[in-house]
Write a structure and sequence with these properties.
Elements: H1 11-19, E1 24-27, H2 34-47, E2 52-56, H3 60-72, E3 77-80, H4 86-97, E4 103-106, H5 108-111, H6 114-125, E5 129-134, H7 149-152, H8 155-160, E6 166-170, H9 175-184, E7 191-194, E8 202-208, H10 212-223, E9 229-232, H11 236-248, E10 253-256, H12 262-274, E11 279-282, E12 297-300, H13 307-314, E13 324-330, H14 332-344, H15 349-367, H16 372-379, H17 395-398, E14 403-405, H18 407-424, H19 430-437, H20 443-447, H21 464-476, E15 480-483, E16 488-491, H22 495-499, E17 506-508, H23 542-562, H24 566-569, H25 572-581, H26 586-590, H27 597-612
Parallel strand pairs: 1-6, 1-7, 2-4, 2-5, 3-4, 5-6, 8-13, 9-11, 9-12, 10-11, 12-13
Antiparallel strand pairs: 14-17, 15-16
Helix pairs in contact: 1-2, 14-15, 14-21, 18-19, 23-25
Bound molecules: adenosine-5'-diphosphate (ADP) and zinc ion (ZN).
Amino acid sequence: MFGYSAFRGAQAEIVDHVIQGGDALVLMPTGGGKSLCFQVPAIARHRRDQGVAVVVSPLIALMHDQVGALEEAGVHAAFLNSSLTLDETQRIEREMMGGRLVLLYVAPERLTTPRMLAQLDSLEERGLLSLFAIDEAHCVSQWGHDFREDYLALNVLHERYPGVPRIALTATADELTRADIVQRLQLEDARIFISSFDRPNIRYAVVEKTEPRQQLLRFIQDEHEGEAGIVYCQSRKKVDETAAWLGGEGITALAYHAGLDADVRRRHQDRFLREEGVVMVATIAFGMGIDKPDVRFVAHLDLPKNIEAYYQETGRAGRDGAPADAWMAYGLADVVNQRRMIDESPAAEEFKRGQRGKLDALLTLAEAHDCRRVRLLAYFGEASERCAAYQNACDNCLNPPATWDATEAARKALSCIYRFHQNRGQRFGAGHLIDVLRGKATDKVAQNGHESLTTFGIGADLSEAQWRVVLRQLIALGYLRTEGEYNTLELTASAREVLRGEVQMLLRQPSDAPKRGKGERGGKAARPGRAKDKAPPLPLDDDGLARFEALKAWRAEVAREHNLPAYIVFHDATLAEMAQAAPATLDALGHISGVGAKKLEAYGREILRVLGG
Ligand code: ADP
Ligand code: ZN
C-alpha cells in the first residue's frame, strides 16, 4: 500500500507486537517513521474484521492532510473535528459505526466527550474497536514542553477499554517525561521501543550572536537559497519584524504566531506546506505535526526553552533524510533573558528548579566545544561517538574550535564584582564591569571612584568580546546571576569555587572572523543559476533533470486538484528516482520506492506518459 520495500529499524517488531494486541510506547525521532507503526496494524486488524483504529492527534489543522495522504495510498480514513459540516460529520460517523473506516483521527477533547465515548462503547461491544494510537504522547506530561490538559483525560481509554491495544508515540522524552507518560497513560504493561535518536542527516551549529539578522540572512543566502526552512523567534513582535525584514531582502518569508488571525495562520501554513522554498518565521506555536519532508533548515534566533524543545524544533528539518541544517545564534542576552523568565515566573519553586536544570543543560550544549551530537544524544540517555562520516558533521567536529584557558580571567571578573560590592554595596551590569576590567576611564568609572580599585585595568589583555564570552559562561554555569531591570551582576554561592581557583574554565576562542560583505560568500558562492530552483535529491543528467521538472509540473496539477500538498502525492525523492530510472512499464514503475498499488493504479499511466513525452 505504501510502496516501500522494507520496514525501517524497529518498525517490523512494533507492528507485529501491536497486531497481536500488545500495548506499546514508541520513542522514535522525527522522521523515523512512527506513522507506519500504527497505520499498518490498523490496516491488518481491519482486514481481520477488527474494525476501526482511533488515532488521537492534537492537531486539528493537520488532520486533513494526514487523512488525505492515507486516502491517496488507498486506506479508508477520516477525521472528526469542528471544521466539518453536520452532513460530513454524520457521514463519517456512519462509516465509523459500520466499522468500515480503517482509521479515524480525533483530537483528545473530542474523544472524551460523552457522545464519542458512547459510540466507542458500541463499537467495542461489537468487537469493532481495533486499536488506539496516541500520537505526540509527550503532551500528557507536565515535564514535556507541550503539555495539554486534554491529554490527561486519555487515561479513560485503558480503564474503559482494557481489551483494546494502545500504542503511544513520541519523538521527545527524557527519562522523567518517559516515566510520566507511562504512569499517566497507564502503560505499565506496554512494551517500550526506543530507537536511536540520532538524526544523521542534520548538522548542528551554534554561532556567536553578533548581528543576528545579518547572520541569518547570510546563512540562508549562502546555504539555503530558495529552500524551505523555519526560523524560530521568542516573541510575536520579533517574528513579525524578522519576516518583514527577510521579505525586504528578497526571501519569501511568512509569519506565524498565536497573535495572528486564525485565517492568516491557516493561509501561511498552507503556503508553507504547498509552495516550494517558503521560509516560515514563527514562535513555537508553529510546527508540531508539520510533516513536510523537505524542510532544509531550522534556525533559532533566540534560545529555545530546553534541549527537548530544541531537539523537537530542529527535528522538523530533513525528514526526507537529505542533508539539513539546525542553526542557532546565541549570545549573552539569551542567557540572561531565559534565566529571568524562569525567576520571574509564578510557578512553584520545585518546578522552577526543574526548569533551571534543563536550561543549564541547554547552555552547556550551546557553549560546548566538543561534538554537539554526542551531547544531544547523551541528554536522551544514548551513548555515541563524535560525528562519523555517514553523519552530517556538527560545527565542532567539522571545524574543531580553538580554546583558551579562561580560569584566570574568570577569577578577575568575579573578584572585581566582589570589590564593587565591598566598596559601597553596589552592583553593576556587564558593560561597566568590562570597562573597569579593561581600565577604561569612563564618566561612570570616575563617578564611582572605580579607578582606585585593585581590579581596575587587570583585564586589559582581553577584548570586550572575549570578556562577554567569559561573563556569559559564568552566568551559564551558575557562578554569576543577573538581577533586576538593569541586569546587574551578582555572585552566587558557588562563585567561591572559581575565586579559589578550584574550577578550570576552558572557553571557545571567539571567532573574530572579519565580516563578509554581500557578494563574497566564502566557499559556497559557486551555486549559480540555483535561484529559486531546488536541486533534485539525486544526481541527474540533463535528460533526467528535464524528466524531473516535467514530473514536478504534473504533480503540482494533481496536488491542486486534490487540494493536498504536493509531497503527499509523491515525495521529491520518489519523483527523482522515477526521473533517473525512467521506467517504461507499469511493473517497473511499481518497483520504485513510494509507489504503492493504489497510486500505481491511479497515476501509473499518466506518469509513463509524462516520462515518455
Ligand atoms: P515520524 O512521524 O516518525 O516523524 P513519518 O511517519 O512521518 O515520521 O515518516 C517519515 C518519512 O519516512 C515519511 O515520509 C514516510 O513515508 C517515510 N517512511 C516511513 N517508513 C518507511 C519505510 N519503511 N520505508 C521507506 N520510507 C518510510
Ligand atoms: Zn559532532
